[in-house]
Amino acid sequence: MAISQPDQFIALLGGGQLGKMLLAEARRMDLSVHSMDPDHMAPCRLGSHRFVQGDFTDYQQVMDFSQGATAVVIEIESVNVKALEDLEAQGIPTFPSAKALRLIQNKIKQKTFYRDQGIPTSDFQVHANHASLQSALAEDQLTMPFVWKLAEGGYDGFGVAMINKASDMDDLPDAPCITEAAVDIDKEIAVVIVRDRHGNTEAFPPVEMAFHPTANQVEFVVCPASLSDQANQQAVQLAKQCAEAFDSPGLLAVELFLTKGGDWLVNEVAPRPHNSGHLTIEACQSSQFEQLLRVAFNLPMGSCALQSAAAMANLVGAANHQGDVMYQGLDQALVVPGSSIHIYGKSQTRPFRKMGHVTATGKDPKQAMQRAAAVRDAISVEAKPSNLLT
Ligand code: ADP
Question: Is residue 145 reached through a cis peptide bond, with omega within 30 degrees of 0 on the bond before it?
């Protein structure tokens, strides 16, 4: 295809920050993207060739919005899958495939798929509701500690709970869930795979989630990961095995655990651009967003090669701040060398909401992390004074 053909466009379901970063690459290459989001103030309202305020969980709205598209791309998983199936049947390719998304949307189906495909993952049990969970515990079929995960609709740690004692279960919703054996994790690694319409794949270099030494929260996504060459290769190999099994075009972010015993397990996957791939914008030859556009428009894949060590830190809403957003400290942040600040353009902040991120490059991961930390620590994402929570 030729670039700059307005009749060739991507229908993007979701208009958040992932879409916004896709739009930046699309604008650079003059590729057309139409986006849809229920929020008329969504980040993608600016920069799309067409922005539609609409509900991507609604069958008819997705069908209408996607008519005539070269491809349908998602930036959020909770879209209407039946519509994706019918669009595929009409000959409109979807990224990911409807089949893969159906498996991934539900953790019970996703984990069962790994087991059936011989993909290593932690041991798990399926529970239809709270009562079934309680009786499994009472009958010693389940022992603490374990990790509880909501089957559908969890995100960013909501819908996941570590259960060490009975009272940790008090606030769990009464809904279908899985319980997983608590893994003795040495490192958390992610690998983003790109797959074109013909099944060719490329892998971005593995990234490592670096945890805060005391707070037990992910502080940075870092590349290269602190892995031996052999372990790096094993991570890429397992991520590719996963991508082969799902056989879905577009991006697949594969989250992995390296156990203290040296085994690799697949935790979960996301069939879309992913937080762990944000640093590819500054650190790799072609970013995850550019790669997704290339494969969706049936253009050749680019190179995932790493150009520089890099670290990414999320910029999240300050605790106790909710309402119209303002960013403090940008003057100090913007002078940190090697760093790029991304502000997502969400009008409202909430405690710990992802409002932006910073990626810093450096001569090695340590320097990149120091730079990313300097930016993150300088910026405070607050609500305007009139909005402060009491
Ligand atoms: P989410 O998609 O909501 O982030 P994850 O499945 O990635 O949920 O879980 C969030 C975090 O919980 C992981 O990054 C990991 O630190 C921890 N975790 C998840 N599953 C397990 C497990 N089976 N054993 C130990 N820790 C786990």
Answer: yes
Instruction: Assess whether the C-beta atom of 69 lies below 6 angstroms from ligand 1.
Output: no
Please give the Cα distance from 74 to 18 (Å, whole number).
Answer: 9
Integer Rg of the chain from CA: 21
**Token pair for 160:** 């996941």
CA-based torsion, 45, 47, 52, 56: positive or negative: negative
The second-level CATH assignment, the architecture, of 9-95 is 3-Layer(aba) Sandwich (3.40)
Q: Six-digit token pair at 93? A: 């390719």
Q: Check residue 278 and give its pLDDT.
A: 98
Q: Whose CA is nearest to atom 23 of ligand 1?
A: 182
State the span(s) of the chain assigned CATH 3.30.470.20: 184-304, 308-390
Please tell me the predicted confidence (pLDDT) of residue 158.
77
Rounded to whole angstroms, the Cα distance separating 84 from 27 reads 25
Average pLDDT per block of 10 residues along the chain, 390 residues long = 76 98 97 97 95 98 98 97 98 98 98 98 95 91 94 81 91 93 96 97 97 79 98 98 98 98 97 98 98 97 98 95 96 98 95 95 98 98 80
With respect to CATH, is domain 123-181 assigned 3.30.1490.20? Answer: yes
- Please name the CATH architecture into which domain 184-304 falls: 2-Layer Sandwich (3.30)
Q: Residue 302: its pLDDT value, please?
A: 97
Q: What pLDDT sits at residue 1?
A: 58
pLDDT tens figures, 340-378: 999 999 999 999 999 999 999 999 999 999 999 999 999
Which residues of the chain form CATH 3.30.1490.20?
A: 123-181
Q: Is the CB of 180 under 6 A from ligand 1?
A: yes
At residue 278, the 3 state secondary structure works out as coil
Q: How far is it, in rounded angstroms, from Cα 106 to Cα 102?
A: 7
CATH 3.40.50.20 positions along the chain are: 9-95
Please choose from 106, 155, 160 the residue to mutate so as to test ligand 1's pocket, defined by most ligand atoms within 8 A of CB. 160
CATH code for residues 308-390? 3.30.470.20
